[in-house]
Amino acid sequence: MTEFLATSPPPILAVIDGQPMTTFPDDLFIPPDALKVLLDSFTGPLDLLCYLIRRQNIDIMNIPIALITRQYMDYIQLMEENRFELAAEYLVMAAMLAEIKSRLLLPPTVSEEGEEEDPRLSLVRKLEAYEQMKIAAKYLDELPRCERDLFRIKLTLVLIKLETVHPEVQLHCLSQKMSALLMQQRHVEPHQIKQDSLSVRDRMTFILDQLQGKKQILFHQLWTKEEGRLGLVVTFLAVLELTRQSLLNLTQPTVRSPIYLMVNDDA
Asked: Is 228 left (phi over 0), alpha (psi -120 to 50) or beta?
């Protein structure tokens, strides 16, 4: 039994004159000038130094200047060999590293405070300040930015003039409506509010007048049936007010028996 193995076609490396090529010709010649080396892009010499320090987990307060200088110069040489345009600041940093390296080889200098000066301190301060600015720049870059994360929307407002349309009213319709309102008004009886003639203050004076020259008086003798419920309420309130002012005394011999009013002689 014969087995057939499925094989995938070879990848196409290039297309020349419309013909795909899967292998390079043996006589293929590539000029050296056509080759380019892609390197990590750095924003400046301090960025390159930070990269070299982070890659080797070096303590920034104890930088091995000789090692960092050698790696820095190797990178610059690589950039020159591949015809990258070197900024002047890269060369200034190279000179600074060479100066620090040479100062470390000399006997240490003593400051006015009596402490030995480390020539690496100025470089450390620059690296720390650069790291802080880099972190702040990253934070600012993550904030929403107009035309990148946010986009403006422009709308053209069209002003629409609204015209008030008044309904057409016929004269005879208005006359009929007016007549209907007048007829309706005839069936409405006006409600007049009459002021009550009874007042608590007047009833208090009346009670005291009734007790003049009398020892006592019955409560139900202080109002008439014609006064109705309003007379009873006004009289009751007047008695309570006189009792509160200690002008009257109330007595009731038994439950449900008549209530007697007497003048308070101690008032």
From this structure: left
Q: Give me the helix-helix angle, 121-142 and 88-105, nearest 10°.
A: 140
Q: What is the pLDDT of residues 71-130, one digit of tens each?
A: 888 887 877 766 566 667 778 888 888 888 888 887 777 666 666 677 788 888 888 898
Q: Is residue 236 a contact partner of residue 218, using CB atoms and an 8 Å limit?
A: no
Taken in order 23, 27, 33, 39, is the CA torsion positive or negative?
positive
Is a pLDDT exceeding 80 seen at residue 227? Answer: yes
Mean pLDDT of 189-214: 80
Given 3.40.50.720, 1.10.10.580, 3.20.20.70, 1.10.260.40, which CATH number is that of 200-263? 1.10.10.580
Distances (CA, A) of 180 to 160, 167, 176, 177: 41, 21, 6, 5
Closest by CA position to 45, among listed 98, 105, 117: 98
Give the integer Cα–Cα distance in Å for 97 and 70.
Answer: 9
217-218 vs 14-16, strand pairing mode: unpaired
pLDDT at residue 61 tops 80: no
The phi-psi region of residue 15 (left if phi > 0; otherwise alpha if psi is between -120 and 50; otherwise beta) is beta
pTM metric for this prediction: 0.38
Evaluate if residue 207 carries a pLDDT over 60.
Answer: yes
Does 46 have pLDDT greater than 50?
yes
List the chain domain ranges.
Answer: 45-108+117-142, 200-263
Q: Which residues of 96-129 are buried (b: 16+ CB within 10 A; e: fewer)?
A: bbeebbebeeeeeeeeeeeeeebbbeebeeebee
